[in-house]
Amino acid sequence: MDRNPSPPPPSQDGEEDGVAGGDCIGSTVYSKHWLFGVLSGLIQIVSPESSRSGSDDEDPQVELDEEVENDICRVWDMSMDEDVALFLQEFKAPDIFMGVLAKSKCPRLREICVGILGNMACFQEICVSISSDQNLGQVLLNCLYDSDPPTLLETSRLLLTCLSQTEVASVWVERIREHPAIYDSICFIMSSSTNVDLLVKVGEVVDKLFDLDEKLMLEWIKNAPVQPSDQVQENSEEQPVYRIVPCVLEAAKQVCSENPEWLDVYMHILQLLTTVDDGIQAIVQCPNTRKDTWNLLFDLVCHEFCQSDDPPIILQEQKTVLASAFSVLSSIHASQAEHEDVSGGKVDLLLIDSLIRVLENTEHCQKKPENSTVSNTEETKKTELTQDDFHLKILKDISCEFLSNIFQKLTKETVAQGIKEGQLSQQKCSCAFQYLLPLYSSVVEDFIKILHEVDKALADYLEEHFPSLKVQT
Hints:
Structural class: mainly alpha
Radius of gyration: 28 Å
Largest sheet: none
Number of helices: 26
């Protein structure tokens, strides 16, 4: 089935009679009587009498009758209407769905019931009611252990909706903290699923959880580490291998194979991890994890996003994923004194090239058209444009900091190589200085000193155009 069936049409026996009799739900044309019938049918499906009608050796109904499925799918579509959602809430439909989820083994039926609850939770009053029901909350969290991808997708969508409501977010965070097995289930999904829609939605849930509660993020970073060998007890210096990062990377690779621009959420998860020391250790401590993280992000920023043949405006679509990727790469690069495998002359030069190109494009995107008048339509977009500028500024700041860190560690040999290959040409050095000065003036001054030994003519040119950098003799 390509899509859910459309909602039921008004009764052909006389629409006016239905309205006069008060059969319509709110201001809609949907029939209360018809909806009662569908919900009653659901109760029958999971009733004890229905279960006893089959053999004791058989599971409860696994397949859903086509007509029943069509009717319930119509309810699913209808539940996007606030009047219908409120009517379902008044009729205690969440209790019926909870009974279905607790008893039914039919994957499609479970998916639809969670989907309807997800639609209902989009309305604040209902979201608060659903969230305050402890039993329903338990049943919904149990759905995260389901083996059916569509059910997992709808459960993740519902959780994300609730976590996005400030009134109830803390309730769900605490519930999830009280169920450590949820961590295992989410790790399993991220590391093994090939369903990109599910991976993106689960990633959004993890990202939201980490953003809401640093304590939970720290617990998940440290949760159930896997020992690297069987001789850990004999060699106490060996460190446990963190699980969360390899799972995030596996999901990111799967998403990337479908569409790299969907990677935003997983890049942001990695960026959130680098905001705490334990998170950085989770990335850099294990050589394989460090290399995998570096290689994935390095390939994205140097060979995938913001390429020389892309129009500068493309940066508007890539600004958040690039900001996260550069931030994580910068954290890993800072550990190069201990881990030389993520740095080196050619690597640093390719990063410099990408960072300068990104900085140039941020400048282009922030330029406002000259002699433009502000129309009403433009005025309505003012907030959105301001938000765009805000994210571009974040990307610009992160890029400048990362670029300064790379410049700070350049050797004489790497500078010579960069001049020869073009990454440190006159034009690119001038561009880099434009963004690094005056905040990172000491870094630029140290670079000029090296440049005097490698290419005095280029050093003199840069000093002439940036007088504040004149080397004191």
